[in-house]
Every structure is written in C-alpha cells, then in structure tokens.
Design goal:
- The chain is an alpha/beta fold.
- The longest helix is centred in the middle third of the chain and has 29 residues.
- It is elongated and about 120 Å long.
- The N terminus is likely disordered.
Length: 1206
C-alpha cells in the first residue's frame, strides 16, 4: 500500500471513530473505503482554455512581458475563477495552489480527501514544490499569511528579501505578522490605485461613506520586507472569509447606484478588477514606462447639453524605455452595455508630459466609464486608466414604477414612468419589457411627457423574472434610461424537479452585493440542468429573487429539528411561539414569488432516546402517559411493574434502559417520537399560515414513527432506504418530493447511476447533494472534466425519463404488506423467530424482482377503515408481534368482504404497549390456536392446494412454531404433529397461516424445476390466492433485482435495476402485441415482444411498453410568422386514428442554428381534442427558419413544424 493510501485509510478510521454527530452519517453512508483515490486535476489546476467570458483586455499584451505570479487561492468562494478573469484582461503567467478556505490549506472532509492531492500532507508538498519557482509576485487570494505552514512562510520571506512582491486580499490576509515594515517614504493607496475608477464602485467603501481618495487609502495599504513590496487590498467582504461563498474577492462587484441596474455586468467587472491588477503590478515592482490619465477627475460630472468637443488627457514619460510614439485608445462605456464608443489617436511624446485629445460622443445620462489605454506600435499596453463620469442631462427618467413587484402568470403589469427636466422637442419615451432570457417580449413608444402609464401584457413573457426599461430619446439619440425589476409567480409544471442541494446555489442572495461572477455561476448551474435551488435562512426573499432571475424554482431550507430542538420546545415556553412567528414571517416573505417546497431541515430525527428528562419534559411525559393509556392507571402499573397512585407520580426513565420493563421502554420511545412528530406538525402549520400554498417536509431525515410524522406533512425525502421508499410511494401522493440524496464524484462513486437507479425504482425528483467545493465544478467555473459525461446523462434524464416518471402513477397490484410502528418496536424485543423487518425486506426483495408493486398497509389505516378488498386483494403479515386489541375485528371485516390474509409465525405475542400477552387474537382469524411460542427447526415440505390454488414448497432448516394447533381451520400441510399450513374461510375471503418463518423459507427454498426461482414460484402461487399476479411474466432466475412498473396513458413504464444474471438474461419480455421503447441511451432500439439489451447496457434503465398500434403526431400551424407574434399551432396525438389523452409531450423551439431554446421548452399533456399552444416570438428574435418540435415521450414519436420568421 502506498503511503498516501495508508494515510487515507488511517484518516478515515479516525474520523469514523470520532463521528458521533448526525451530520457525519451521510458521508460514511456514501464513502466506500475500498475504492482508490480519485483524480483531482480539476481541483488543482486553474484552466484558462475552456470558459471565456466577455471582457476588455486592457492590459494584454503587456509591455515588458507577462507578470509571473503564484496564487494561493481559496476554493471556498469564486476566487479561482477570478484568476482566469485576471488572465483574460492582463498578461499573466501563473501557478496556483488551491486551498480549502481563507485560513486552511485543506480539510479532512471525506468527499474532499477522496481526491488525490487534497490531503494535508499532499497540499503542503504541492505548496512547497511551487514555492521553488521564480515569481514576480505571490498572491494570497484570500489567505491569512500566518496560517501558512511555517516552512512556506519562511520561503516566501526569503523570496521577498530578494525582491518578490506579496499581494493579499481581504482585511485578514496580513494576519498578525510584525516583521512587515512601513515603506520609507510611505506609499499611499492613492498612489498605487491611480487610474482606477473608485468613484464608480460604491462597494469598495469600507465603513462609513468617505471621499474617493480616502476610499483608496482605506482599501489598500502598503509595507515591505527586504526588497519585496507588500500590498493589502482590504475589501469589505460580504461574508466572513471562511464562509462557503464570499463574493468577488479580487474584483469586487460594481453596480453604480445611479443606474439602478438589476445585476452586475462584465463592463462593471472590467472596472472592478482594475484596482487588483494595479496593486499586482505595484507589488511586483513593475514600473510602466508611460502613464496615461484623463484631465477629468474620477467621479466628475459632465452635462450632455455642454458635452466637451474633445476629452483631454496626458501622457507622462516615466522611463527611458518609453517609445517615441504612443497610440491612445479611448473607450466611453456605459456599464449596462447600452452605449460604447471607441476612438484612437497617435501621440508623439514631446517631453516629460504630452497632452492629447480624443473625440467621443455623448452617452445617455448616468454613469459612464472612460477608458484610456496607451499602447506601443506593436500593440503592447504601456499603461491604462479608467475614470468614472456622472453624465447629467436637462431631462431624465426619474422613476419607473409598477403596481406590484410580483404578478401572476399571464397577468398584465401596470407601469408608470416619471420624467423630469426640460424635454427636448420631439422627444419620445419607450418602455421595453425584457424577460430573464433576454427576450424583448413587449415594447411601446409614446411622445415624451412628464409622466406616462403603460399596460404591459405578460402573455409573451418567458421565465420567472423580467425588467422594464424606460428609454428617453430625442433626435435619434438615447438621452436616459432606467429599469425596474419584476417577477412572475410561476408554478412548476410537468418538468422534472432537479434540485441542487447545498452549495453552490443556482442563485445566491443579493447579486448586486456579491458580484458578477455569482451570476456566471448561476448561469452555469442552470445550463447543467438544475432547475431548483436551495434557499437558506439569510435574506430568503433576495435568494428567491436571484433564483427567479435564472428561471429556477426555490426550495426553502427553513429550519432543522434535532434532539436539542425537541427538548428546547418542551422546556422553554417562549421558544415555540417565537419559532412559529419566525416561520410564519419567513413563509410570508417568499410567498409572493412562489416557493416549490419548504424543508424543515436535513438529518432530522431523534437517533438515540434521551436517558434523562427535565422537570418540564417529565410533566409532558406524564400527560402523554395518561392519554396513551386512556387514563387506565392500573394498566400502566401492570406494564411498568409499579404501584403509582396517579399518573403524576410516574417517574423519569432509568439511565440504564435494560433495567426497565419492555413496555416502559416502549412508552419512553413513543413519547419522544410523538414530541418529534408534533414539532414537525406545528412547524408545518406555522409555514402554511404564512403561505397557504406551502408544501412542507424534510430531506435526508428519519423517523421511527414515519407514518405519524408525515401525517402532517406534504412530502418526505429520506436517505436511500428501499423499505422507506416503498412506504412513501403509496403513503404520499406519487408526485410528492421523495427523491433520495445523491452526490457527485468522478468514476461514478456517487454519480448519475444513483439517479438512474432512483428513477428506475420510482423516485420522482432528483436531489443532488453538494456542499464540498469539489466534485462538480473545475476551478475555472466550467464543469469538471469527469462530470461532463454524467452532466449529459442528467440532461437526458431531464429530457425524457425524469418528466415521465414524475407524470406517471404507480402500478398497484393489490398486494399489501402489514406495517405498524408498534410491531416494529416489538420485533427488537422478541427475536425467537428472527426480525419482522428483516423478513419484510426479504419479501420486498422478491416482490421487486417479480415485478409486483406492494403497498405497506398500516394498522392505523386498517383501524380507520382504509383496508378495502377492492384495492388490497391480499394482505401479507410478516411476524406482527405486537398489535392492538382493535386490529383483529377490523381484519375479520376485511376477510368477510372478500379479502385474503397470509400470515406467518410470531403472531400477536405483545400488546399495545409491547407488553407480553398470550397469543390468540390474530391466530383465531386463521383457525389456529396456541398458548406459547415454541420455535423448532424443521424442514418445511408440502404439496397441496387452497381452494384450488396449488401450493408447494421444499425448504430445509426453517423455524416452525411447534406450539400452534388447529382450531376451527383446516390443516393443509403438517410436519408430524405441527401444522405447516392452516386455512380458514371467512365469508367471501380466506386466511392462510404459514406456520414457519417466511424469511428462512424464501432463502432455503429448493426446486430444480422452478420457472423463476424456488422462492419466486412459491410466492407467485401465494399471490394467486388473492388473484394478484405480475403484469409481465417474470424471467427465469429473476435477473433484475427490481422490476418497477408505472402507468401513463396507454403505456407501462418499466424500471429495471440491479442486473445480476448471466449475459444471455440481459433482456426484457413484454409479450406479444406489445412494443418496447427504451428510455435510456445505450439500451438498444425499439423492439416488439422482447428487447435484447446490449452486453454493456447500464444496470439501471427505463423502458416504455406500448401497444403496437400505429401512433401519429400531427402539427398544424402557419409556415410564417413575424417578430412579436403570438404564433399559434395545434397538436393532435392519435393511436390507431383515435386521439390519446394524458400522454406527456415535450415541446421545444429550435432556432435557425438548430439550438433548442430553453425559454420555449415545456412539457404538456395530450388531450382528446386538438391541443392548442402558442409560441411567443420575441421582438428581438433573429430572422430565419425555426422549427417547432413536439415529442411524445413514452414512444419517441416526434414531429416538426418549420416556421419562417421575417
């Protein structure tokens, strides 16, 4: 074993031993220690060749050649991308060491250290190796100098003594080092940041508002060590430096307040990153031979009506290397991109200072940036400066107002525009409506007046966010513009819900404060296929707005429920009202925008029952006891072996649970489980008071009494647990959120196969867990190389199988599995016949492999009258060891009405508080009796029939109950004196007792002539008693672990998961007259009757089984349209010339280049008559031939309609 692998193993063992908190559970659940370390280049290398953003390369190429730099850059924010942004604008040769956060080189987080190069030892070696290089400057971006390893600090100081510079970002980057000395003479921030437009960057302000020069001195401080220069850029961070996201570090966000812009732009980022590059040059000791500056000071006001004939600037010669001639490139840029003008002039240097002039037209009112870039004859940049100008005008757009910030989908938006000042003759006012896809969907122009009102139709809008832009123009020139943002409350349709859980979010709150790069990040995540982002506690409405700008829905993680919370609400009488008020307010804040779901937290639950009780908890416990015993103190004393005179005397649990009788232990657990459920319920009610449409649940959580917890919730997303997933498929509406977390890592350790297997087994949404700064994105903001293949798979899921599974309904084969929390609790108290939950799992394994969808039917459901033979043909009861007195009469009614019950051993040996009771209440239903349990090992062998249904089994080494005797039933088989099968008729129904444990019988079953497997054949025969059978004939050997069936229109969706057979069994048979259509690529093409899968077909896939009748899609619509039209067309889906209803269709529009336009992608259901749809053609759509494409998802049938847009 290599040393790095040994370190990994030892580290994992240490963490495993020390991981006592619930939060570690998810990581240990996922990490497989036997796997090799993972490729980590995407985490270590900052690539510059993949993801290019628009920018002004104002210092590239650079006179004197590239600057050589080493970046020690934190992965905890977006700083690595900023290195790329620097490189795009500035000539740079760099190395980088990517570190965990602003104070830690790396962490021991398992999903990080799984990657090669991410252990502490490896990271220190990388840093040590790269510090051997020769650099002009070392950049801490951001990182505290005194948190570096001592050896690294020493190496940096050695380099600084020789002249290497040091640049730090963030107020804490300098650390507590005292060896750095002031410069003599001192160098101020004003000197270093010359030519930077600080007046246009309000977010550079540190503390209270100050003058521009004071901002420069506060923002940057200088020092030295030996010959090396130090510069510290003390940006005020949006978050503490160790947070997951810190905002733009090296180029802080730039949103000039007078513009009222919605989001930052690359034009503002050019200006924002300029101070960082200026500081980089200074720290490196690079003196440019020429300096360029504008005569106008930064922040100067210039009136459009007195626009200068030319702008005056000055070139200053600073060195003998200065060329005789300099070309000055002047750019006047409006930050929102609505104005840009470029002029060039060649200037011959005539002395120490040379003046020049450039002519530039007048931009609209507001902030503009004047760039002056000095180049030598070959184009290399000698120097640059940028000046912020405030352009004023006699007339302006004072305000744009709407009647509401949020409208309903399709609702009209009332807008009012107020103008001020003296309006020029012939001036016009235009109002444009632009959606979050940058589509101009509405526009109107009127003569300018002091105020104007507009009624904006939103029917042509796409997405959840838009903006209204008012433009004041005269004489063909834009004089001023202003914007206001609005949002549309848009429900989630039939699209697949693809949640990115954790960080990075699709949108983070307050983009204006956090920067342009967060916008890029959001666009990248949305491009990857995620359409739901997580909102957390801080400023939730702002986060929802940010998500809406990416046309993403919101998932609000609003609280958490751990043991400490449960106890807090029991002990502090003020805690619950405060939390209820907070939750109600939080929901009310986000309600106007629409919120897909509210989460009560992750990893909720009480893992271990508390061993003590406070006085308040004990009082609540006593109230609970009186209620659960219906005031029967005698029953409590009997169960607890006590002699209390009143419930108020009941004592707290003992510290050692083993010293308490089983009923007392059960009552303590039930109390805490009830308290936990109660908190879920009142929290959900509080959220619904704030948002009556709220859908409330929790994810990655557990509950010992799951049925009770979700009775007051709308959804529940557990860890990946097959039994719990099976419960939720029928206990909640099919479409409710219930997907299991899955993670992201190379080599598919936690990759898309997990998502495919979830879909194949019936999950309806994806919840991708992401909290480590690794595994998804490379350091350049492009997806990591290893994720690209599964990003493509995730898009495939979102295209077809994901929406299909969500729109479908489960196949209900009429088979019920009895479940009760009481019986589960009793299973741990009496294991003479094994565990009922283990037996249930084995039975579910077999049912899944046979293609039978079984429902968990609970004791609560039965007692409330929900057990109906019309739906549940057959009920299987796996060792129901504890039941209430009321269950047997309810089951007898079900039997008389025509139901079938199959039960096995250990029936009914404990009561409603897990107290021991003599068996009999349930045994009587089967026509059997017993006085005690007598587990005996014996061979189970019989060949018989029950009411004409053949039953045969050979299974050695089973546990039979020798204490059971036949009462008024009929023994269909027996071993010596012990009955093996006892049958009893009940009116229209029947009950069959298997007097052996089903778990061992299924595992030990032998039959060389079995059609499926011996156990499979036996179970199929049992199911025939209730008339239940799989829809498709099971394959010999049951090669698939799960065959899950779902229904949609005339199609049956088949999920296949867990292939475990020989290659020749890699097939699926649907029978004659059926067509099989694969819903996953790599699984072959359409086939009739039987689909033979390729040898390398994936182990989780979805198929659609359809009638062979001809299917046809017909699209009718005009062949031409024009921009601004609501193009109308209709769709008819028919099967055998008859319209088909409720089949899911994907509708998309392809532009002239063949790209599918996300704004127009939708999923709709077919109708019995023609489905009429509209395509709103944007006013700014490019002319050309577009295609409207409609695809029926279950069959792949597609049709296109070509439309020429002029």
């Amino acid at each position: 074993m290599r040393r790095s692998q040994l370190l990994w193993l030892v580290g994992m063992m240490i963490l495993l031993l020390t991981a006592s908190s619930a939060s570690f559970a998810r990581y240990w659940h996922w990490i497989e220690f036997s796997q090799p370390r993972l490729y980590g280049d995407y985490l270590h290398n900052i690539r510059t060749d993949r993801y290019h953003t628009p920018c002004l390369p104002f210092a590239k190429p650079l006179a004197g050649g590239p600057l050589r730099a080493l970046f020690i850059v934190s992965k905890a924010g977006i700083a690595p991308r900023e290195v790329v942004e620097m490189w795009q604008r500035f000539e740079l040769e760099f190395e980088a060491v990517t570190v965990h956060d602003a104070e830690t080189l790396c962490d021991w987080f398992p999903l990080t250290t799984a990657v090669l190069g991410e252990s502490p030892e490896e990271k220190e070696r990388e840093l040590d190796r790269k510090l051997e290089g020769d650099y002009d400057v070392i950049v801490l971006a951001p990182f505290r100098f005194d948190k570096l390893p001592p050896k690294a600090q020493f190496k940096i100081l050695e380099k600084m003594k020789q002249g290497t510079g040091l640049l730090g970002f963030g107020a804490t980057a300098r650390g507590d080092q005292s060896m750095f000395r002031p410069l003599n003479p001192p160098v101020s921030g004003q000197e270093v940041l010359r030519g930077c437009a600080l007046a246009g960057l309000p977010y550079f302000e540190v503390g209270e508002k100050v003058t521009r020069d004071q901002v420069a001195d506060r923002t940057l401080s200088t020092a030295c060590f030996g010959r090396g220069r130090l510069a510290w850029l003390n940006y005020s961070a949006a978050h503490y430096h160790n947070s997951w996201y810190m905002g733009d570090t090296m180029g802080r966000p730039a949103t000039p307040a007078p513009l009222g812009m919605v989001v930052p732009t690359w034009q503002t980022y050019d200006v924002a990153i300029a101070p960082a590059l200026r500081a980089l040059l200074w720290a490196a000791g690079r003196q440019q031979p020429v300096q360029v500056e504008a005569e106008l000071g930064d922040g100067a006001e210039v009136n459009r009506s007195r626009w200068p004939a030319a702008f005056v600037g000055k070139l200053t010669r600073w060195g003998v290397e200065a060329p005789p001639e300099v070309t000055v490139e002047a750019r006047l840029v409006r930050p929102d991109g609505q104005f840009e003008e470029v002029a060039k002039t060649t200037v011959r240097l005539t002395g120490a200072e040379t003046a020049f002039e450039v002519k530039l037209g007048a931009p609209p009112r507001g902030v503009a940036f004047l760039w002056l870039i000095a180049r030598e004859s070959q184009g290399a940049v000698l120097d640059w400066s940028v000046t912020s100008l405030l352009v004023t005008a006699p007339a302006s757009v004072e305000q744009v107002q709407t009647q509401s910030e949020v409208i309903e989908s399709g609702e009209e938006l009332e807008a009012r525009v107020v103008l001020t000042g003296e309006l020029p003759a012939g001036a016009t006012l235009a109002l444009d409506a632009i959606d979050c896809y940058d589509r101009l969907f509405w526009s109107k122009q009127v003569p300018a007046a002091a105020s104007a009102t507009f009624t904006v139709a939103s029917t042509a809008m796409c997405g959840r966010a838009g903006r209204l832009r008012a433009r004041l123009s005269a004489g063909g020139q834009l004089l001023d513009s202003a914007e206001v943002e609005f949002f549309v409350r848009k429900p989630v349709g039939h699209e697949f819900i693809n949640l990115l859980w954790g960080h990075p979010g699709i949108g983070v709150s307050d983009w204006q404060a956090r920067g342009y790069l967060n916008q890029l990040h959001a666009e990248g995540v949305r491009r990857g296929g995620w359409n739901v982002g997580m909102v957390t506690y801080s400023n939730p409405a702002a986060v929802v707005r940010a998500l809406s700008r990416a046309d993403a829905a919101s998932f609000y993680y609003v609280t958490g429920i751990q043991e400490a919370n449960v106890r807090q609400y029991l002990n502090d009488p003020e805690a619950r009202p405060k939390e209820e008020a907070r939750l109600e307010k939080a929901a009310a804040e986000v309600r106007p925008y629409g919120c897909l779901a509210y989460s009560l937290g992750d990893e909720n639950g009480i893992i271990r029952t508390p061993k003590d009780m406070s006085p308040a908890e004990l009082e609540a416990f006593r109230v609970f006891l009186a209620r659960s015993y219906d005031g029967d103190l005698e029953a409590l004393n009997r169960n607890w072996q006590t002699n209390y005179g009143d419930f108020s005397e009941a004592e707290a649990p003992l510290a050692d649970p083993s010293k308490m009788p089983a009923p007392r232990r059960y009552d303590v657990d039930a109390f805490w489980d009830g308290a936990y459920a109660d908190i879920n319920h009142w929290m959900a009610q509080a959220l619904k008071r704030g948002d009556p449409d709220a859908l409330v649940g929790a994810e990655g959580s557990w509950a010992r009494d799951l049925e009770e917890v979700i009775s007051g919730l709308d959804w529940w997303a557990p860890y990946r647990d097959r039994n719990v997933n099976a419960m939720l498929r029928f206990w909640l509406p099919w479409s409710a959120l219930r997907g299991n977390w899955w993670g992201t890592y190379p080599d598919d350790r936690l990759g898309p196969e997990h998502l495919w297997s979830q879909l194949a087994t019936g999950s309806v949404n994806a919840s991708m867990f992401f909290i480590s700064p690794s595994g998804l994105f490379g350091m350049d903001f492009e997806f990591a190389e290893d994720t690209l293949p599964w990003i493509a798979q995730m898009r495939e899921i979102c295209d077809t199988p994901g929406p299909l599974v969500r729109a479908a309904q489960p196949q209900d084969d009429g088979v019920g599995l009895f479940y009760s929390r009481l019986s589960n609790a009793a299973s741990g108290l009496d294991n003479r016949f094994g565990s009922s939950s283990t037996e249930q799992s084995a039975l579910l394994d077999l049912l899944d492999a046979l293609g039978i969808d079984a429902r968990f039917v609970t004791e609560r459901q039965i007692l409330s009258g929900q057990l109906d033979p019309g739906r549940t043909k057959l009920l299987i009861m796996c060792q129901p060891k504890a039941v209430t007195d009321a269950l047997a009469p309810a089951l007898e009614r079900y039997l008389r009405d025509g139901g079938v019950i199959i039960g096995d051993v250990a029936l009914d040996v404990r009561g409603d508080h897990c107290q021991e009771v003599p068996p009999g209440r349930l045994l009587a239903l089967f026509g059997a009796q017993a006085t005690e349990l007598k587990p005996t090992t014996a061979e189970v062998k019989f060949q018989t029939s029950a009411l004409g249904t053949p039953l045969a089994l050979v299974a050695p080494n089973c546990l039979v109950d020798a204490g059971v005797r036949v009462a008024d039933g009929v023994a269909l088989a027996q071993a010596e004196e012990v009955p093996l099968l006892v049958h009893r008729k009940h009116g229209k129904g029947q009950a069959l007792l298997l007097n052996f444990d089903l778990y061992r019988a299924l595992g030990e079953a032998k039959d060389p002539a079995a059609v499926t497997t011996p156990a499979g054949d036996f179970l199929l025969d049992l199911l025939k008693l209730g008339g239940a059978a799989p829809l498709f004939e099971p394959a010999t050997g049951l090669p698939w672990a799960t065959v899950r069936l779902m229904r949609l229109a005339d199609a049956t969706l088949v999920g296949l998961h867990g292939f475990r057979g020989p290659d020749e069994a890699r097939r699926f048979s649907a029978g004659e007259g059926r067509r099989i259509h694969p819903l996953r690529s790599g699984c072959g093409s359409d086939s009739e009757g039987e689909l033979v899968l390729p040898a390398k077909a994936p182990g989780a896939l979805l198929l659609s089984v359809l009638p062979t009748t001809r299917r046809e899609l017909r699209l009718d619509g005009p062949g031409e349209g024009k921009r601004g039209d609501l193009y109308q067309y209709q769709i008819v889906l028919s099967v055998g010339a008859k319209p088909l209803v409720d089949s899911l269709l994907r509708v998309e529009v392809l532009d002239p280049a063949g790209r599918s336009l996300g704004a127009h992608r939708d999923f709709v259901m077919s109708r019995t008559r023609a489905l009429r749809l509209r395509w709103p053609i944007a006013l700014n759509a490019a002319p050309g031939t577009y295609r409207v494409r409609v695809t029926e998802l279950v069959s792949g049938t597609a049709e296109e309609l070509k439309v020429l847009i002029r």
